[in-house]
């Protein structure tokens, strides 16, 4: 069967790999769609993402959906042909969280994640025609949600978790700085979660076009000299650019909250932080999600339309071209999709 494997920076291949073995407690999913994430692009460009570095070939992909092809005899409640997506995280047994972190399973010391080189051996991803998946990681797609949309449940879950980290957005003015795929999904989810208004800022007009199509209240083209709003209640910093932090903090009202959604560089950075003190701003991190992928499926079933985000699609054989388009914002790409089978 075919799979998209990264061997080193710049060395992406579509290769034949063995069909997976079905073990107790598992199903085999015939993957249909996968979304290319920023971490996938980082492995392709740099051979690493954050502190995770490739040391062996790895199948990429953690934003996937498909249909169940086989079910182990000890698995109940799942059926062949059922459309599903995957919660890509597995907590490594034998660990404990301190009581203050109860329920925050994404913060366990070792969480293995589809398509991640954080631990050795690496956790193979889902950009393959078939993948064996633990039954507990399977999330059935609701009626009306197809597998193309279902592949977006994982990044939408990241967006919902970020909103939860902010303490919710209901009746609050929201700014999203950065309208890449995650920023756009934060904005779309915030509209569905009763934000008073949602403003999106970016340097690229194509990215702002996606945000407009998703129904935000206002966009700001920073490259064109447009100014960020003032006194917003919650800001989601989704660009990952430390140079933007000063303006982001200045746009956030006194006593407001800034949630860092975009991955910042792992090394030392220079940023203007004075407003954190003078405005008593709470600056919070957000990392993946706990089980907000289920909330994301509810949003999709409730009518959240992610199609405007899905700007390009490629068959698995054209994975190299898909990555090139996804990694070049001048193409107008947002979420680039791979048709896996």
Top keywords for this entry?
341 residues; alpha/beta; Quinone Oxidoreductase, Chain A, domain 1; Rossmann fold; 2 domains; seven-stranded mixed β-sheet; six-stranded parallel β-sheet; 9 helices; globular; ADH-like_N; oxidoreductase; zinc ion binding; EC 1.1.1.264; L-idonate 5-dehydrogenase [NAD(P)+] activity
Uncertain runs: none
Would you give the CATH topology of the largest domain?
Quinone Oxidoreductase, Chain A, domain 1
Task: Examine the secondary-structure arrangement and name the CATH architecture of the largest domain.
Answer: Alpha-Beta Complex
Helix content: 10-25%
Largest sheet: 7 strands, mixed
Structural class by secondary-structure content: alpha/beta
Average pLDDT figure: 96
Please indicate the count of domains. Answer: 2
Order of helices and strands: EEEHEEEEEEEEEHHEHEHEEHEHEHEHE
Count the E strands: 20
Structure annotation, total helices: 9
Strand coverage percent: 25-35%
Shape: globular
First-last Cα distance = 10 Å
CATH homologous superfamily classification of the largest domain: Medium-chain alcohol dehydrogenases, catalytic domain
CA radius of gyration: 20 Å
CATH C-level category of the largest domain: Alpha Beta
Domain Alcohol dehydrogenase-like N-terminal: 24-143
GO molecular function: L-idonate 5-dehydrogenase [NAD(P)+] activity; zinc ion binding
Cofactor: Zn(2+)
Organism: Spelaeicoccus albus
Describe the structure.
The protein has 341 residues and is an alpha/beta fold. It folds into 2 domains: 185 residues, Medium-chain alcohol dehydrogenases, catalytic domain (Quinone Oxidoreductase, Chain A, domain 1, Alpha-Beta Complex); 127 residues, Rossmann fold (3-Layer(aba) Sandwich). Strands 3, 7, 8, 11, 12, 19 and 20 form a 7-stranded mixed β-sheet that branches. It has a 6-stranded parallel β-sheet with strand order 15-14-13-16-17-18. A 3-stranded antiparallel β-sheet has the order 2-1-6, with helices on one face. Helix 6 links the parallel strand 16 and strand 17. Helix 3 crosses helix 4 and helix 3 crosses helix 8. Pfam families: ADH_N, ADH_zinc_N. Its cofactor is Zn(2+).
